[in-house]
Design brief:
- There is one protein chain.
- The protein is α+β, with helices and mostly antiparallel strands and 166 residues long.
- It starts with a helix and ends in an 11-residue tail after the last strand.
- It is globular, with a radius of gyration of 16 Å.
- It contains 6 helices and 7 strands; from the N terminus they run H-H-H-E-E-E-E-H-E-E-H-H-E.
Length: 166
C-alpha cells in the first residue's frame, strides 16, 4: 500500500464515484500510454493492479482491462465489482468463456488460467483477502443485488496436469 491508498479508499467509497468511471478510465488509458504501461491510476493510488487481456467471447479479439488485484498464494484475485453497480462488467463474461487469459503486472506478462470461485468457504476466504486490500468491496457488496464475481488467476505454468486415470 502507498501513501495515497487511504485517500483512494475514501474516494472509492463515495456514491458519486461510479459516475466518474469513464473519466477515470480515460485518464488511466492516457497515463498508461504516456508511460508505456509502466504507470496506472491504481499505481498512483498505491494499489496492486494488473492488466487483464482476454479474448472477447463473441469477437475473439483481445480485450484489455486494468483491474485492482490481490496477489494471493502465487496467483491473483480479481472481482467484477463495478463499484457495486447493478451490471456485471463485460470482462467477466469474456473471462468466464475463456480457458486462458493474459495478465500484465508492470512489464511482465503471464498466461493465466481463470477460475471463478462462486460459493462456499473458499469464496469467503478469497473475499476476505480482497477486502483487506480494498475495504470498499464490502460497501459494493451492500450496494448491489448481484453476487460480485471473484476470480483466481493462476499462472498456467504453475498448474500441474491431471494424472492419466487409464
Amino acid at each position: 500500500m502507498g501513501l495515497l491508498t487511504p485517500l483512494a479508499v475514501r474516494i472509492g467509497a463515495q456514491p458519486w464515484m461510479p459516475r466518474l468511471l469513464p473519466q477515470v478510465v480515460w485518464v488511466d488509458e492516457h497515463l498508461q500510454g504516456w508511460s508505456r504501461g509502466r504507470v496506472s491510476v491504481l499505481d498512483l493510488a498505491g494499489l496492486p493492479n494488473l492488466m487483464l487481456t482476454v479474448a472477447g467471447r463473441r469477437s475473439g479479439l483481445p480485450r484489455s482491462t486494468p483491474l485492482l488485484c490481490v496477489p494471493f498464494e502465487g496467483s491473483w484475485l480479481v472481482a467484477g465489482s463495478y463499484f457495486g453497480g447493478p451490471r456485471t462488467p463485460v470482462w467477466v463474461f469474456n473471462l468466464r468463456a475463456a480457458e486462458r487469459a493474459e495478465v500484465r503486472v508492470g512489464r511482465r506478462s503471464t498466461v493465466v488460467v481463470p477460475e471463478e470461485v462462486s460459493a462456499g468457504p473458499e469464496r469467503d476466504r478469497l473475499w476476505a483477502a480482497m477486502v483487506r486490500v480494498w475495504p470498499n468491496y464490502r460497501l459494493y457488496e451492500q450496494k448491489t443485488d448481484r453476487l460480485i464475481p471473484v476470480f483466481r488467476l493462476t499462472p498456467a505454468d504453475a498448474i500441474r496436469p491431471e494424472p492419466d486415470a487409464g
